[in-house]
User: Fold these one by one.
Assistant:
Number 1:
Amino acid sequence: MPVAPIALLLLELVGIADTLWLTQAHLLGGSCGDESGCSAMLASDYTRIFGLPLATLGLGFYLLVAGLAWRALVAEMRQESIRWISVLTGVGVFPVVVLVYLQGFVIGAWCPYCLLSAGLMILLLVVSVLHRRQSQTLQTLIGRLPELRVAIAAAAALATPSLLFLGLEQVLSAQPIALHSGGTSQHIAARVGTRQITIEELDKAIQLRVTEARSSMREEWLDLQVLETEAAKSDVTVDQLMQQVKPPEITQQHIDDFFEANGARMPPNVPRSRLDPQIREQLLRDGHRDAEVIYIQRLRQRYGTQLSPPATERFAIDANPLGAPERGPADAAVTIVAFSDLACSYCAKAHLRLDELQQELGADLRVVFRHFPLKMHPEARLAAEVSACADEQNLFWPMVDVLFENQRQLGTEQLQAYGESVGLNLTQLDECLQSHRGDAVVNADLAEGDELGVSSTPSFFINGHFMKDLPSVENLQHLVQVYQ
């Protein structure tokens, strides 16, 4: 038997395997390794025509030509079959050459599977043409058309992969599936160049923001329910009810205190006579907002309104894996992990609030402190390292209390003075800083915060549930009852 039919059949089988892999990669998301350009190619618009991947059309082509190569094993059908193989591959060489050009000069990424398919196409053409030349059948370029039954079988082989692809794509888009490996979702949700991003990676990155937005909307909705209940009880609308909330009176002393606290941020060369009315309006707006918040909180307390997120929404967070500073028993019913910035004014208020909650709940509450100095507060980093070193001398909490009280003065000399005031051994403090042990503690906390998606301070994880603000004593007492 001539070598050509066997060689053609083997090449076709390799082509079928190659295009089959590329087809499933289009359908389910696949990769040929970070160093290849497969991801860029698969994501390119150049690899589809009329919505169909070229790989799917190539699979149909290789199935068709494989059928012809199989017929070529029979002597009576050999010349006709190889003649059509040479014609079809001659036509097929043009699109694969264009695709190779696009890879090198437009997309700028080389896909080894695509290059393999191009090489196979050229080899098929060469082998079939050489056979025709050897058998002296090259003079008749195309010859007579195939019989109807052969033409139908050829059309079916060519179209079947595309029809199957369209059907599967429609099913998968209606009911997305994920490929599982060891219980981890591997569904490719996006591509950035050659990097493939799984849906698990994407969801993990946005989980905290989604939780924060969902919690905020839940709280707003509950506030509205409380206001509507109170409004109905008083036979007024919610707007009329809120108009009854009066802001506190703003005195000149309030204005003077605000100016003194924020003098550095005031526009220069502007007289107080022009600033005072603006300050008064700002204080009125802030006071009205605070009064509304306090009013709604009292209504929620009156109606026993408490939000208890389900356990399924907890974050997988180890409360204290590295022995961070903490107060309260390890087996407390409620554990609050607080990511805090020592230069953040809201963190200072939250720190005082945590003290109050701990006094109220006692052994039912455990508080774990995590450092998360923000880049917008450059002085907070050194303060965090100093407090981490103070923890080595069992003086973390006194040191943090002083730092939160003196947030406007966190320079190196001030930090040393604060340390001395709480009883720190300055020699040991300096040795800790020089050896970067405090730096390592802060970096570890920052890394875990980044892993969880923390982006602002303060941020709290209460028994694994993310909360932007600390709940009331009543809500925490409710959690104590839930988790006991």
Number 2:
Amino acid sequence: MNAPIRLFVFGLGYSAGAFARAMKAKADWVGGTVRTVDKAVALAAEGLRAFTFDGSAAGIGIGEAIRQATHLVVSIPPEHTDPVLACHRSSILAAAQLQWIGYLSTVGVYGDYGGAWVDEDTAPEPKRGRSAERFAAEHAWQVAAAERGVPLAVLRIAGICGPGRNAFAKLAEGTARRIVKPGQVFNRIHVDDIVQTLDAALDRNAAGIFNLADDEPAPPQDVVAYAAELMGVPPPPEVPFDEADLSEMARSFYGENKRVSNRRIKEALGVALRYPTYREGLADMWERGRWR
């Protein structure tokens, strides 16, 4: 019989929250952090041990929960420095039961490769401030995990899609746009595939860097057009990138173009993507009414 899993998640947001819910069936207990008391109360009603943590100071009760935890997942982005290590490093280093850490990062750390393929051995060249901070945080967690003597999996995640985060929702809201920049592609990953990859990494106490991305980097305008086709609505008109009214942050995403290889999660973790391209993910959400 396997030893009981006690999972603590820093940042019970969209993806890590889905993972925490999925782990309730196999873990002795699952706990984690949110930013507000209201969210903590709501998650407690779902059977999760929820603590408040805003990144500015150690959260009440979190240190003791970490010391009981066997597995730790971190899904809080850095704010200049990593807030979890800034506030709870000593508790993590003192966690005698801890067996594994998973750190959720972003494929944005690779920077711009002009549409070329990148994999986990590709040298990161983060251009944007947030991506550079993520890359620095990856290194900080590698140092902390080595000091504690536990394996660390750094999970670099592509654009996340799933219920509530998809082209259907944007079409329904009237906010979907088909911005065309010739040659531009993005990878995506369905939240269900994030959950199953995290589960596989945890089961194996996997160490190293892993890209969480789909099989087909695709132009963003194609994704919107396919969703519109499934919905039976006309797609929004194409807008040339140079004419698009974009925020500085949105425009910066288009400044990075790469194709992200997911071979390692398949070969090292045995992952078979449920949604290998955007088409399977959108079709499943539409057919099952899971897009809202």
Number 3:
Amino acid sequence: MEKSVRITRHLIFLTIFFSLLWISGCKKAGDDNTATADKIGRAQDLLWLSPEYQAGTYRNIDKIFITRSIKRGSTVYPLPYSASQLSSVKYSLNGSRTYDIDDYIERNQVSGLLIIKNGEIILERYAQGNTASSKWLGFSTGKSIVSTLIGIALQDGKIKNINDHVTDYVPALKGTAYDGVTVRQLLQMSSGIQWDENYLDPASDMVNIFSCTVKIKPGCILEYMAQLPRVAQPGTQFLYKTGETHVEAEVLRAALGGETISDYMSRKLWANMGMEADAYWALESENGIESGGGMICMTLRDYGRFGLFILNNGIISGSPVLPTGWVEEAGFPAPDSPQCGYGKLSSEYNACPDPYAYPCGYGYNWWSLPPADWGEWENLNDPTWWDTDTINVSKPDFPLLNGTFTAMGVFGQFIHINQKEKMITVIWSTWKYPWIDPKEYETYSFLNAATAKSQLQ
């Protein structure tokens, strides 16, 4: 999820992209699959779908990509409905107008909304053709799942130490810029490797590795990552890199010694936790590795159950599945990693090309909300950044979200963890651009109001 590319640049690159036929072919359901009733787009168009194709495609990823199932178990973790449903939430962005739940869903193109408190569902809504059985693509929320699996592998002793070198597990990266980079630095997006995350530039690193999956070329992503140069010392600068989470997946695959990542996830988490349905993970190639950058699909309630696993510090039926203290360590920026600190991510501190004040910090593939003062959040009202989605707001202040953390994926996907309130929120969306800061701000405004209302019930 890139935080610093302006909308005007997005539109220019989008025009360029559609004028180039830079990718040909897809795995199945190719050029003619858009004629289906569900309006499923093509694999190669996933990051650039028009609104009419977004929802149908996001819930049918298995029809256009090669996938591997993540099997559920024989029992289901109960998610009962609370006797006190959250039927009314009121929030305001600037004090001049009040919005409610329906407004939030409509204004933010929300296709699924789930709030769990104290283990019970207090709000569940579906839109855009989704139902309780729909399996939705979480995009980069899957990065937080990858980091969680690395934590589980640490608990199992399959990964010896979080500070091990990446090349200890992936020897193919020896002699590259990844020499000396640790697994922890990967999780913090602090390897020092050069990267361009721009989703709408056909020449960007992000688009290049995405094309690997579309072309179904085994080992393509790792080969691409191996040729990238170093631009900063490892552990000194934060730079968001989807390709880096694929390297994390390569570390995990090597550590598992032959078991697939999906089977490991099924055995240690999915079946163990009691998910209600099989999930699935898109692969880089036939019988290949799972796409670590975030191509996992599951039901809304199972996203919620994953959130509960994190909320409960990785303990299932009294047994620790994650190392002691892992959730605290993974959810928040570390004191010894100032590049991941609150307000630093998109700043000059990290040599951002378009620096601006953004309040969050970064843990291990989790975005951390400030513990107290939210600081500034610049450019929310600037149309050169956010086109018609601008909002005029005062300094952000969401006190009931202080010290929480969230997984985030492009086009408006969230798994928000509020341990203090014992509250999980999952949001599916179909935003028109990969990321829109004003909509992220509005999401926090809604969550803060929903949390306040839940305290009164």
Number 4:
Amino acid sequence: MGIEKAPSSSSVGIRELARSLGISAGTVSRALNDRYGVNSRTRARVIEEARRVGYVPNSAARALKEQPVLTIGLFFAPFLGPNREINPAALNFVDMLRQKAAEKLASLQTFFYSDDADLKVQIETRHIDVAILYGQFNPSAFETVESSRVPAVIMHFPTQAPNQVSVSLDMRRAAGEAVEYLAALGHERLGIVTSTHRSMHAANFEAGYLDALEEFGLPYRSEWDFELPAEKANKFGACEALSDLLNEKDRPTAIVFANDWLALGGRLAAKNAEIRVPEDLSLIGFENMPSSAEVDPPLTTFDVHVPKAAELVIEQAIKLSEQKRNGASIKNDEILITAELVKRQSCACLRKIGN
């Protein structure tokens, strides 16, 4: 009996791999190129089948040629919409992290976080040099990474671990600046929409909002304060949450949102209630998604300068890896990124000329 040889890479392509695995060519392509949208088990199946048949994707060949200086594991835990869609701003940031890692000749592998057990397996089996945790995690996830002795950049959560660094957006300052801007325009009736306060991103935004209301002597209305659960922390959840309020006569004149995705839901709710933006309702978002400048009217928001923020995160990851490799002690640190208010046409001035 002869030995069966694996087909050469020239004779096997993505379509053949997809057929043999019973999945789409798009899924195979995303798995081979380490793109988001593929779970760890499917990615492992695709890679194993590619190895069996001798297929090497172009991206893998380039990576071998460039000899990455380190492997970064990005663990991603986003809020999902009703059709499992993800905040476009979060996807944009993930893509920018990948781009900045490539510029530093680092390999960035992206994994969707499911639970701590899967997180531990991925870290231990993927030979990850340093981890980045981005999204909505329980504190136990940070402890899992710490126990693996892999240094990590933790985004939007504080950490006390000696080999972890926290990188967060200064949400408290941004919310305060949003309230200050609206107060200067003459607004006194403000509302707020955030995701669950389990996320420090949302909790700090809420804290900054409350501090600013007190500072400027503005009333707080608990019925105008919406904290959305994880499954509702999306455009459609925000629209649903605001629908009843915007159909009442007693409603805010302005609402601030913890991200643009939620703000677009507020805009949809206003449209459904036949409320004009900004004449009847002013809106402020956060993150400056590309689409926020294209809606009518363009959305006032905060620019987090994604390329610079992503570069900072990758640089911190590389620094942590180098410190561990050199046996240097890693100082626990917290880095805050300041966002810039971008004033557009979604906010109206209520002050009369002469007042």
